[in-house]
Every structure is written in C-alpha cells, then in structure tokens.
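Annual report, structural modelling task.

Input specification for the tryptophan complex:
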Amino acid sequence: MKIARFSQLGFILAAAGSAVGLGNIWKFPYVAGEYGGGAFVLIYLITVIAIGFSVMIAEMLIGYMGRLDSVGSFEKLAPLHKKSWKYAGFMGFTGLLILSFYSVVIGWIFHYIAVSITTLPSTVSEAEQAFTQLLSSDVKTQFFYHTLAFIVITGIVLKGIKGGIEKINYILMPMLVLILGGMFLYASSLDAFSEAVSFMFNPDFSKITSEAIITAVGHAFFTLSLGMASILTYSASLPKQINLSKTSLIIVGLDTGIAIIAGLMLFTFLFEYGAEPSKGPGLVFISLPAVFYEMGSLGNVFAVLFFIGLAFAGLTSAISLLEPMVQYQIDRFDFSRMKSAFIAGGFFYLLGLVALLANINEYSELLTFGSKNVFDWIDFITASILLPLGGLLMSIFVGFIVPKTQLQAALKSSMSEFGFTLWYFSLRFIVPPALIVVMLNLMSIIGVELIMPMFGVAYLISAVVWLGSI
Ligand code: TRP
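The model returned the following structure:
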C-alpha cells in the first residue's frame, strides 16, 4: 500500500506531463504532415474527444478505485475474475517497450541541444546528412546520450512519486509551456502563420483513408498515454477527493492544445522558409534546424530552446512509462524502489541499445525482420496494436466487469447522473466496437462511411459529458 499521494495540481501536472511528450511535438506534426494535414487532424481530434476522453476516465477509475499497481488493481476490482483479468494489468510492460526507443529519441534530442548552441546546418540537405549520419553510423554519440537519458529517467523515478515525479513535473511543465508559448507567439506574427492554420484545419476529405484512421486512433492513445497503465498507476496515488471527469478534461485539453500549438508553430516556420511538411520522423531534426539557420543568431537561441522544451516533454513522459513496472515490482515482490527501478530501467536500456543498433548500417540487416527494423517494429507494435488493445481491455473491464454501483459511487461527485449514463453507454457499446473495427482493420468490410458516424455519436456523447463537467 502506498502512502505517498499526489496533490491535486501535482497529479494534473504529472498526468499532463505524461501525455504531453514526443508524441505531441515530434510525432504529431510529422504524421499530420504525412497524411495531408487537415483531414488527419480532424479524425485525430474526433478520436481524442470521442474515445480518448471516455477511456481516460475508465483508466483513471481503475487506479483510483484499486489503489494498487496495475496488476493488483485489476485483481482487486474483479474478485470473481481475478485470475484472468490480472493479465490485463501486465500491459504496464508495454511501457518498457515504448521507452526503449523513446529513450533513444530523447538521446538524439540531447545531442541536438548540444550541437545547436554553436552550429546549425545551412541547408536541408546538409541537415539531412547530419541526421542520417547520426542514426546510421554514429554509435558512440547515440550510445552516450541514450545512456544519459537512461540515467536521468531512472534517477527521477528512483526518488518516488512525491520527491521525484511530482517535483520534476512542477518544474518542467511550466517551463515547457513558457518555451512553446513564446515561440508560438513569435510564429503567429509571421506571414506563413495563416498558411499553417489552413494546412492544419482545412480537411481534404479524400484523404480520409482507413490507414489514416488507424494511425489517428493509435496516435490518440499514444498521445494521451492511454492503454498501458501510465495513467492508471499515477491514479493509484490520487487524492481521495477529486473530480475525475474534470481532471480528464483538463489533461485531454492540455495535451491537445499543446499538440496544436506545436504543430502550428512548426508548420509556420517550415512554410515561412519553404521547407516541406511531409518529411517523416526527421521533420524536427532535419527541416527545422535548417529553418532555424535562416533566422540567423536568433535561430540558435530558438533551436536550443526548442530542443530543451522537447527534452522536457520527453522526460516527463518517459518517467510515466517506467513507473508502472517499477510500482508493480514494489507492490508484488516487495522490492526496494532502487532495485525495482534498476531492473525495469535495465530492461529498457538494453532493448534501447538493440533498437539503436537497428538503425546502424552494419547491423541493420541483422536487425531487420520483414519490412521493418527492430526500432520501427517496436514503435508499430506498441502504438498500432498494444495500446488500442490495452484501451479495449480497460473499457470492457470498466464497462462490463466492475459492478456499476461501485462506478457510480466513485464518480458521484464527478458527473451528473445523466452524464454517467451517457459515458457508461459509450464505454460499453461504442468504444469497444469502434476499437475492434479499427484494430482489425475491418473498415474495408463495414466501410469508412459507417465508422465515422460511430465516432460521431461517441463524439456527441463525450461533448455532453464534457459540458456537464465544466
Ligand atoms: N504520451 C506520451 C507522448 O505523447 C508518451 C507516453 C507516455 C505514452 N506514457 C504513455 C504512450 C503510455 C502510451 C502509453 O509522447
């Protein structure tokens, strides 16, 4: 049993810190760029509101009511189905898989902070060369910074919920908002800002394909930190009196707001200097540094600040990816936090090394299976399969296994009766089928025309519950 509890603001910052991460600033703009902008942003927004919000409340409830690590909470809330449901709690393990490549990317960011102080690439092709060189042949630099990332992430988690996780979020989150906010204000004064707005908000409906929907749903889970017990584990340390739907609303709002601000800022800079929006994962590492170069010495300041902000966002998410396993081992095996953090940390560190080597020319053949190398496989399996699966299990668990009366009691001060009825209905009969259709890619059978109305109904329901909780 844990004694340390978050304060209310501490929890909001920690959960928002978990949600706002590389997913918002690094991944969101480049996937949006790849899938044509507005159409993708629209599906993503609908999914976040329609599915993400309901699942967020469900995941928070499991931790809040269970008060234990992920496995323990599932067991405790389903005494009759304890044996089978406890396996759902092992989804916390997914976090270590994500963390392996996440830590490597944080390492790249550390490297970019260091080099941007003095040098920026003068052209996009120079930038591309530098990035490719780092990834495909510079083992030493990547090894060094991945190790540094491992030390920082594990070091924070070692200090526990209050002294480590809450404290670091109190410092880094406001700084992140300041950095991004400042750069966004500058971007909004540039001519290309309106172009960025129309790129992000003018949907071209012909671009809504089943692949775009799958990616958007996977990304919605990824960006909200849903489906692998980050939020669940943090919620086990929630203060007793808390309005869960309002808290979810704030977290979802902050996460989405920051993704949009980051996207608008990035696209403004890119368009202002004529760079391409569909550069893939290299977007912030290739196009952006070259754009910063064009700004002269202000560019160096911006580049360093931007990568520092990105590192902050990444670190506050990384600790939430590690904590579920750490907490599980403490609760289960009575490990000290130190031992637990080193075991879980050691795992992601080593797997991260493999992911890192998979991009290196000499090893890439050995570490490529089928169409993807290990790095891309981990990203794909976690985001497109394990997270939606985790979300599906959580909605079924809360929707059908946990007794309704217990849910009502826990949500009494968070929702009106009407809001509860709507949320519960959506969690049982809309969210799971929608997720199954998307996960199994049944859209070609039932048709994109049918899945969109389903999302639409869920969207309306969520909107009513949202309004009710303001
Ligand atoms: N949400 C974070 C991001 O956007 C990543 C993350 C942290 C995450 N915890 C998670 C993703 C749990 C899925 C599940 O970068």
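Residues 89 and 257 are 30 Å apart (CA to CA).
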